[in-house]
User: Fold this.
Amino acid sequence: MNEPIVLEPAQAAIVRSLTTDACQDMFQTLGSPVVLLEKPGGLAHDIAAFIGFTGSARGMLMISSSTELFRSSYPSQTGTPPSVVDLFDWAAEVANQLLGRIKRRFCERGLDFDVSVPTAVRGRDLGGRSPARDGACNLAFTIGDQGICVCLEVAPPDNGRIFKDPAEPIGCAIEGELVLF
Assistant:
């Protein structure tokens, strides 16, 4: 069996930096301090959401956290507590919004991709991959007193590079813009 192609170290560092920035940007909107953890571990997660992407680079984004984080950040218009189905939908939407922020940062570096439909699951002990696999950017944050794990896995083309140097930015929507299709 062939070894999977992974990003060159410099490319992986760019992906990690862009992903970290997107996470901090997104998670700070939840209203609590956001802290990147150096050594993730011990975070109890029972909801995970996944979303894939395709193009010149393919991959997937997974986020996982506790029911409590998704419940406390749920955008209720009526003050009614969200149902389990609402929490799944919200977790999937958080993954979708985060991948949108990552996509904008990738477009600024000349790489666009198409996004699939997100999905969410519930189970025991969901969380980031440990140990991390080659080709995956694994991050963990605390948001207030809750934790969230983010895994962005990128399968690059044969040369291990997804960003060109120099990069020519690609225009794309900014967070909060309405895009109809």
Remarks:
- The chain has a mean pLDDT of 86.
- Helices lie at 9-27, 67-73, 84-108.
